[in-house]
């Protein structure tokens, strides 16, 4: 692994009025790392993720992606966003476009690729997520898990340097959660750098290189998954994980 981070957060702050949701977060994600972020609702996990591609503007600190400070004035945020794939809880697919149409839209409209080239790339991306046979299906004809895999294909087709996942399985039926997590494992095996906010503790424990526990807008604890789950150092981490293992 290179030692230069793909993503670096330095003193990241976010406030809504007087409510401080991120209190000076420092984080580095190295190339090829899968980092899972866990913690209670309202701990700032999603706000942190959305600041990483400026879907939300931070109130202070720096966000550096692949060497570019995206919080700097005058930065071309659209160019930066092409390097950052994002997958949300909701699939956000266009209902009037086929799976292939959804995947190729940015290639054609943003990168101005000819239709034939865009479709070849789109089909390859759908194949990577196991949906080569669904290229012509519309979102309404697909299960939730299949729609989320189309959303992943739409993100990876742009060949991002970094993939952000915000609770990618929370809107899915239990039986389709596994197919999305399997795709994420395969992406990880292919060398994709990933920052994943998740409540799938089994996935975090088994797949992550590093687990970060957030609470009240700060990183309380981080380390290899085996350490954070097996021997958490902080009382808040222990209490959260104990609650989680009892409730699930």
Q: What do you see in this structure?
A:
With 248 residues, the protein is of the alpha/beta class. Helix content is 37%, strand content 24%. The protein has a six-stranded mixed sheet, sandwiched between helices. Helix 3 (99-109) packs parallel to helix 5, helix 4 (115-128) packs across helix 5 (144-156) and helix 5 packs parallel to helix 6. The longest helix is centred in the last third of the chain and has 16 residues, at 174-189.
Instruction: State the total count of DSSP E strands.
Output: 10
Q: Can you summarize the main beta sheet?
A: 6 strands, mixed
Q: What's the tally of helices?
A: 9
Sheet-strand content, in percent, reads 15-25%
- The neighbouring-strand order within the major sheet is 6-7-8-3-9-10
- Which quaternary structure do these chains form? single chain
Tell me, briefly, the overall form. Answer: globular
Structural class label: alpha/beta
Span between termini: 35 Å
Helix content: 25-40%
Order of helices and strands: EEEHEEHEHHHEHEHEEHH
| Mean pLDDT value | 92
């Amino acid at each position: 692994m290179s030692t230069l981070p793909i993503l670096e957060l330095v003193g990241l702050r976010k406030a809504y009025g007087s409510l401080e949701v991120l209190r000076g977060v420092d984080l580095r994600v190295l190339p090829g790392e899968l980092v899972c972020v866990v913690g209670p609702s309202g701990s700032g996990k999603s706000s942190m993720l959305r600041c990483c591609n400026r879907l939300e503007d931070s109130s202070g600190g720096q966000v550096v992606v692949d060497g570019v400070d995206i919080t700097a004035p005058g930065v071309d945020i659209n160019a930066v966003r092409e390097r950052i794939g994002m997958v949300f809880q909701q699939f956000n697919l266009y209902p009037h476009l086929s799976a292939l149409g959804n995947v190729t839209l940015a290639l054609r409209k943003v990168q101005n690729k000819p239709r034939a080239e865009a479709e070849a790339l789109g089909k390859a991306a759908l194949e990577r997520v196991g949906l080569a046979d669904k290229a012509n299906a519309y979102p309404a004809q697909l299960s939730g898990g299949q729609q989320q895999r189309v959303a992943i294909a739409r993100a990876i087709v742009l060949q991002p340097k970094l993939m952000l996942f915000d609770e990618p399985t929370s809107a899915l039926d239990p039986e389709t959660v596994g197919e999305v997590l399997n795709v994420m494992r395969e992406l990880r095996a292919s060398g994709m750098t990933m920052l994943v906010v998740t409540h799938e503790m089994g996935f975090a424990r088994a797949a992550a290189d590093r687990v970060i526990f957030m609470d009240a807008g700060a990183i309380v604890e981080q380390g290899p998954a085996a350490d954070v789950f097996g021997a958490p150092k902080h009382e808040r981490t222990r209490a959260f994980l104990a609650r989680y293992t009892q409730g699930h």
